[in-house]
User: Which sequence fits this backbone?
């Protein structure tokens, strides 16, 4: 479970990213974070991974109080979270298999476990036949599939995706979203997006952000810009 | 090893630059280290040469002289004491003036004083020994080369201080330059490091390949430096032998271990290799540690 309680984030120059934001996300829930650029979507995702810390309020992620000043389990927290970025962030000097395997290597998995789990993850995203291919030979959609495989491979409890379809054409975006659909109910999934078509068609919980505040929380919602 | 080699192949220019800087630093360090070791050895050798000569009054009984000798030996400050009896002194006199019969006729053993030649462990003890002797009875004269001793002490301290300052500067310079080189190399991998941090990699996991690669480059550079240095020493060996002609042994004391540096020997070379490898390993790993720190704050 993820709990935000009266979370505010002010940056040193004075701009406020989040203002008194509170919400709860249950285990294995599928949630869209929507809102215009600068609404605070990415700030929420970065606070979940403790990339940034709030100015005030409390955040609990799977029993970790990430706002505790003495919090020292950042590594354990991050090992529970799979992250997908708009710009994929694949490692250009590693092939598809190595890119996905890195998620398991950092937690000290042995080579046979890595081999099995990476193969399953690549099957999930439809890249089984391209495991030895390097990123320069892949399309944008395929790169995002690699990133998704990397995020899900370590049986991570929470998947967060920041504009996962932002750099993709509509058809590829739908293909990517179908992969998320397959993961539904197995992990907590939080997707920050602008894409109204996708949000409306999924009919999942939607948290709408505007100027750093949650203005709507719909259990099975749609979204209009 | 495979990963290190792959990383070097993927960034060959940065790796080569780091290697060249390491090689230059280590080669310079090696030359300095060996030169200073020889300088120390020579100073140690020279330090044992100065002596105090004490002349006793003509009729001093030998027992009194031996008492003074034994007390000095038990002080722990004296390396060796040579007793010159009246007869020994006369024999030396005869040897020195063997071509001048007139001088030999004028002198007999009775008028020559007995003496002690005292070699101190360190020149710093000589004034102390001289003062001690002056306070004893039966002493006619105490002689020692005060000016030479003072100059030698000043020179020794100046060399030690200069070596310390130069080495500190060399270490600082090499770490700064190497850190900058490694930073250029790591900058290319910034997004990879950030990604690894975000997916839960520990700092040591992220650092490991960079530190290992730097260690490899450090070891390779120190080995090459040592190989080239050894060839140079072999080439100049005849010159060194003529330069140190007459000096049977030069040594330095390291942690109560007397290391023979001349004549050149395998133990000395082994210690030089281990020292330079250790130095190379330390500066390369410290530099990569500092360089990676910059990107581990995510």
Assistant:
């Amino acid at each position: 479970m993820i709990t935000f309680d009266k979370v505010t984030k002010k940056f040193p120059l004075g701009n406020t990213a989040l203002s008194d934001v509170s919400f709860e996300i249950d285990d294995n829930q599928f949630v869209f974070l929507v809102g215009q650029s600068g609404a605070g979507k990415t700030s929420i995702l970065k606070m979940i991974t403790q990339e940034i810390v709030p100015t005030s309020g409390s955040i609990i992620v799977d029993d970790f109080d990430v706002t505790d000043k003495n919090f020292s389990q950042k590594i354990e927290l991050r090992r529970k979270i799979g992250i997908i970025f708009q710009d994929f962030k694949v490692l250009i000097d590693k092939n598809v298999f190595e890119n996905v395997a890195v998620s398991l290597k950092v937690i000290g998995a042995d080579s046979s476990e890595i081999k099995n789990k990476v193969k399953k993850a690549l099957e999930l995203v439809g890249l089984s036949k391209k495991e030895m291919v390097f990123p320069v030979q892949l399309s944008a959609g395929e790169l995002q599939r690699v990133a998704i495989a990397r995020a899900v491979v370590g049986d991570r409890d929470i998947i967060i995706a920041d504009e996962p379809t932002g750099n993709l054409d509509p058809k590829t975006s739908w293909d990517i979203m179908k992969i998320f659909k397959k993961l539904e109910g197995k992990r907590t999934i939080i997707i920050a997006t602008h894409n109204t078509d996708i949000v409306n068609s999924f009919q999942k919980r939607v948290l709408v952000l505007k100027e750093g505040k949650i203005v709507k929380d719909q259990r099975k919602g749609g979204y209009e810009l | 090893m495979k990963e290190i080699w792959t990383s070097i192949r993927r960034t060959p220019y940065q790796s080569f630059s780091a290697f060249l800087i390491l090689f230059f630093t280590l080669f310079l360090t090696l030359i300095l280290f060996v030169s200073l070791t020889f300088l120390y050895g020579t100073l140690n050798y020279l330090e044992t040469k100065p002596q105090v000569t004490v002349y006793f009054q003509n009729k001093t009984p030998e027992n009194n002289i031996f008492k003074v000798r034994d007390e000095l030996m038990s002080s722990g400050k004296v390396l060796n004491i040579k007793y010159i009896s009246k007869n020994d002194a006369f024999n030396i006199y005869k040897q020195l003036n063997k071509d001048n019969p007139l001088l030999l006729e004028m002198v007999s053993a009775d008028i020559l004083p007995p003496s002690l030649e005292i070699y101190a462990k360190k020149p710093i003890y000589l004034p102390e020994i001289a003062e001690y002797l002056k306070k004893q009875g039966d002493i006619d004269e105490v002689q020692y080369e005060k000016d030479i001793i003072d100059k030698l002490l000043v020179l020794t301290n100046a060399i030690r201080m200069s070596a310390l300052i130069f080495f500190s500067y060399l270490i600082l310079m090499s770490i700064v330059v190497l850190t900058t080189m490694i930073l250029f190399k790591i900058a290319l991998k910034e997004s990879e490091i950030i990604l690894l941090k975000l997916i839960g990699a520990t700092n040591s996991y992220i650092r490991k390949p960079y530190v290992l690669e730097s260690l490899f480059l450090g070891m390779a550079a120190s080995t090459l430096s040592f190989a080239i240095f050894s060839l140079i020493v072999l080439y100049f060996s005849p010159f060194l032998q003529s330069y140190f002609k007459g000096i049977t042994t030069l040594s330095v004391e390291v942690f109560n271990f007397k290391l023979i540096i001349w004549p050149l020997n395998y133990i000395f070379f082994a210690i030089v290799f281990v020292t330079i490898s250790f130095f190379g390993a330390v500066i390369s790993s410290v530099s990569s540690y500092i360089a990676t720190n910059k990107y581990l704050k995510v």
About this structure: The CA atoms of residues 127 and 146 of chain B lie 8 Å apart. Residues 51-144 of chain B form a domain with the Alpha-Beta Plaits fold (CATH 3.30.70.3040). Strands of chain B lie at 51-56, 78-84, 115-120, 139-144, 250-254, 257-262. The first helix of chain B runs from residue 2 to 10.
